[in-house]
Amino acid sequence: MAQPADLLTGMPAGTAPPAAPPRPVWLYVRRWLALNSEALRAVLIGAVALGLFLLAWHLLTTYRVVFFVRFTNVPSPAAVYESLTRAMHDSKFMMHVLLSCRRILIGFSLAALVAVPLGLLMGRFKLIHETLFPITEILRPIPAIAWVPMAIMLWPTNEQSIVFITFLGSFFPILVNTLHGMSLVDPVLVRASQCLGAREVSIFREVYFPASLPHIFTGLTVGMGVAWVSLIAAEMISGQYGIGYFTWEAYSLVQYSDIALGMICIGVLGLGSSTLIRGLGRLVMPWNRT
């Protein structure tokens, strides 16, 4: 006796429909490329620009070009690569890098923990702003290298003085950008929260802080770059270890390839740390993604 057929599929009742054929792999690849086209375009353009930069560097150093700027003593990319391979097998070089990263982590973290709350308070309360803003504006233009003698007198060890200089370098950009973010908060949002019965703590948490976050992360990114500048200056003058000391020691010993290696290492470390902050900002502020 024939089984009754399903009205929708026309198949016998109780029979599972046939599985859909697997989609070709190229369809998934095409979809992934379409979703990430902008990122791939940026990576491709960056790779081409970096390749052209290395080619220009190679040609200028190979032919010892002298045109206002002298490339007679500048090491070639191949010489810097040889220096890198030697340094990678040298534990002392890795110690220089790790110590610099530790100083950046401590100094920058302390600056963020102090500057962000202080900027929020200065932006919210007029009396605090009028009291502290003139002091910060007097101290802010002083370059980090000018703080080195004072830091040596203030702190008992070179390590503490270097961390202090790194702290100062990143503190003021974070503070200024936090203040700028607070000044741009829409007062209508503040009044609306007050009308709904929100207290001061809730207004800070729900209105001021989220509205200021884009500017705070801008300050963190700028502060990280200034922190590296301050750190390298301090390590060159008063440090005994660190990537800045490594670069200055290479200059003293006339090791040109090590000078370029130290500079490139500083740039890569600065780029990596700034990228981490931008990534953290995208996680914290999903509404701010483009």
Automatic annotation (TrEMBL):
What InterPro entries does the annotation carry?
MetI-like, MetI-like_sf
Per the record, the GO terms for biological process are:
alkanesulfonate transmembrane transport
Membrane-crossing residues? 39-60, 104-125, 137-155, 161-179, 216-239, 259-280
Renumbered to this chain, the signal peptide range is none
UniProt domain ABC transmembrane type-1: residue ranges: 97-277
Q: Which domain of life is it from?
A: Bacteria
Q: Which GO terms describe its cellular component?
A: plasma membrane
Q: Where in the cell is it found?
A: Cell membrane
Q: Where is this protein primarily located?
A: membrane
Keyword tags: Cell membrane, Membrane, Transmembrane, Transmembrane helix, Transport
The annotated topology with respect to the bilayer is: Multi-pass membrane protein
UniProt family annotation: Belongs to the binding-protein-dependent transport system permease family.
Q: What does this protein do?
A: Probably part of an ABC transporter complex. Probably responsible for the translocation of the substrate across the membrane.
Q: Which named protein is this? A: NitT/TauT family transport system permease protein
What organism does the UniProt record list as the source?
Rhodopseudomonas rhenobacensis
